[in-house]
Amino acid sequence: MLASTFADHVLRTCAAPVDAAALAAAKAAIGPSGAPPAPALHRIAAQAPYGPDTTDPLTTALLAAALPEDWHRQDRSAEPAAWAWRVCAAAAAGMEASRPAAARDPAGAGCDPALAVLIGAELAVRLAAALGARHAAVWDPAGSAGVLGAAVTACLAGGATHGRLTTALCIAASLTGGHRVHDATPLGDLTPGFAAAAGVLAAALAGHGVTASPTALEGPRGLLFTYGDRAAAATLLEGFGTVWTVLAPQRHTTPAAAEPVPSQPGTGTDLAARLAAFASGLDLDTVPDSARHAGRRALANVIGLAVDAASHPAVLAVADTLRDLGLRGDVPVAGRGETVSGYAAALLMGYAMHVEDFDDTHLRTVLHPGAPVVGAALAAAAVVAADGRDVLAGVVAGIEVGSRVGIALGPGHFDRGWHVTGTAGHVGAAAAAARVLRLDAEQTRHALAIAGALAAGVTEQLGSMTKALHVGRSAADGLQAALLARAGLTGAADPFGAPAGLAAALAPAYDPAAALERLGEEWEVEQNAFKPYSCGIVSHPVIDAAIAARDAGLPTADIERVVVTVRPVVLEVMGVREPVNGLQSKFSVYHCFAVGMLDGGAGPAQYTDARASDPQVVGLRRKVEAVTDPAMPKDACRVQVWLPGGVTHTFTVQHATGSVAAPMTDAQLEAKFRLLTAPVLGDDGAARRWRAAMSVDGPGDELLELVRA
Questions:
Q1: How confident is the model at residue 474 (pLDDT cuts 50, 70, 90)?
Q2: Which architecture does CATH list for 537-653?
Q3: CA dihedral 66, 349, 388, 489 (to 10 degrees)
């Protein structure tokens, strides 16, 4: 596994004697990289810190790495990789500013701070070079490869074990960003800062037990695959620790222009500007009742999930991380009875609303819009004391914008390995926060650009704690993007459709015309489906079939064989054959059939570590085979069950429960809400919370009720 191999090399290098000339060069290179950012950029960033002020570790790293105002006017063609030094030195500064629990791992092997920066910068430069010309034409290496270097430096700055280094690298694989379209803009100048802060966050999360896929770098849907060059891994570590490529002169001019992404008619449309105008101008009174009602349902659904997941081990690990990073503040976190900074509140809410995979899905794009959009909207509302009408307007605007960005990026975006809720979800969350903050159209356009530049998350992370981090970070970055835009941060004129913009970075094709079709006339929020089962939505037809088999009285103990026929994407997403824990079982179609048959349901209780290893469940899921049929609709399946004597029963599901064609009713959604919240709030408290969500835009402001513990 590549991250583990990286960690081996890093720790060996840290422990071995290092060439004195290389270390001296590293110390010399670190000094100039600390030049302060442009005063205007510092002023803007200081208005949207991660914590209560600019002294928290993430904001410290952000400001330390942001580029000075004369950066782009200097000739850097004969200079070592200044971007890598700057990002990694800032990550070290960020960890130095953190509290001891977050900054240092007593069991780890520490090394000289300059060596920590040298090793991180070396890894970043090697990764950027290995990814090749296509990557260099579209991605700012400081924002992509730089995040992994920053994570290594942040771990080493206070000492790190092999396990923490490995996990930090894998988490960092989902925190990349930065597109060349923003070169020489204020947003581009801040890209190294975002990367440094992301590296510090990855290291801190790894230190608190947050898990990630061990193949997040080189796996079938890992980082190298999304960048289009998995073969790059072969040469990454040749001579690592003895040959310091970061010290060699390198060119720092912008690479040749990227090839335009293949597009449909309408490519010239500035999608960001059109969506920004729509979101900023959204008047709740002109939104159809059906769309407003769909927005309330989206809000209620994820509020219930936030309450239920408040004590989930993964949520507690993330909360502990943010607390140790000093992200204090007065923004309430729904379901948790605590206040933190706006960034931390949005991240925690988005994370908790998604961690059980029980939220919602815009089926055309496979976006889960509720968690990132509502997390950002609620945090923004606390920042400016907005009312419930503003929150609902933000929710509707955010789901519309996020869904339509997903439509523009097309199915090839998901097929390339990107997690749509971590990419389009970023933009939707920014639209929601911008609407709650009442930004104008131009400010909103820049908010969407900033969020798009931070969009990330690879589907190799499915089944790990980092998958929900994609969603929490979408909410948090969406809020921060809106706050930075309000403070005056600007990016490129066409951040999505330009040759080195969002679409070129994330998708093999781009169709803005499809995204804008009947905007403001037909509402994507009404196409949002709510999950009746706590797992990947593409397996829901199989669970329906399993429950039907149970209701038909088939004796579970007599089942000899089960064959499920599904669309190919089901095995791409849900193909885990032997899940080892509850999170992995959410992505096993075999487990989904087994618990549906045995338990007659598939809620959070069916996806615990204990249920994943239960002998009865394991025995039944090993009898399940899956075959694919490209003609099978997304929300359909066919299941055949063999009993002794060759007796066969067939169960066909045309439209899964919760799909657009067979939606959950209000009564069913309320029952789900009560199931999630009554054990925490009691029956009366659950009833009050449901009423508050479903009347959030009414005459009585119900926002305080929504975010109570």
A1: very high
A2: 2-Layer Sandwich (3.30)
A3: 10
CA distances from 310 to 4, 321, 527, 606, 677 (A): 32, 15, 28, 18, 10
Distance CA 473, CA 637 (A): 34
Give bridge partners of residue 458 from the DSSP assignment. Answer: 418
Average pLDDT for the chain: 90
Coil, helix or strand for 653? strand
Q: What is the pLDDT of residue 253?
A: 42
Distance of CA 35 to the CA centre of its chain: 31
Q: How many CB atoms lie within 10 A of CB 453?
A: 30
CA separation for the pair 82, 70 (Å, rounded): 14
Pick the CATH number of 2-35+81-247 from 3.40.190.10, 3.20.20.80, 3.40.120.10, 1.10.4100.10: 1.10.4100.10
Q: Are the beta carbons of 440 and 560 closer than 8 angstroms?
A: no
Q: Would you say domain 271-520 falls under CATH 1.10.4100.10?
A: yes
> Which pLDDT score, from 0 to 100, does residue 672 have?
97
- Rg of the Cα atoms in the chain: 24
DSSP annotation string for 515-584: HHTTBTTB-GGGGEEEPSSSS-GGGHHHHHHHHHHHHTT--GGG--EEEEEE-HHHHHHHB-SS--SHHH
Let me know if the fold of 2-35+81-247 is the same as that of 537-653: no
φ, ψ at 242 (rounded to 5°): -120, -35
Residue 252 has pLDDT above 80, yes or no: no
Residue 427 buriedness (CB in 10 A; 0-12 / 13-18 / 19+): buried
| Token output for 500 | 């080195």
Mean per-residue pLDDT for 648-675? 95
Q: What is the pLDDT of residues 410-422, one digit of tens each?
A: 999 999 999 999 9
pLDDT tens per residue, range 70-100: 665 565 554 558 889 889 999 998 988 775 5
pLDDT tens figures, 345-357? 999 999 999 999 9
Indicate the domain borders of the chain: 2-35+81-247, 271-520, 537-653
Residue 257 has pLDDT above 60, yes or no: no
pLDDT at 73: 57
Alpha helices by DSSP H, 460-511: 465-487, 502-506
Task: Give yes or no for residue 282 having a pLDDT over 70.
Answer: yes
Q: What is the pLDDT of residue 462?
A: 94
Bridge partners (DSSP) of residue 109 are 160
Helix, strand, or coil here: 438? coil
For CA atoms 654, 660, 661, 665, give the dihedral sign.
positive
CA distance 374 to 396: 10
Q: 589 and 564 in contact (C-beta within 8 Å)?
A: yes
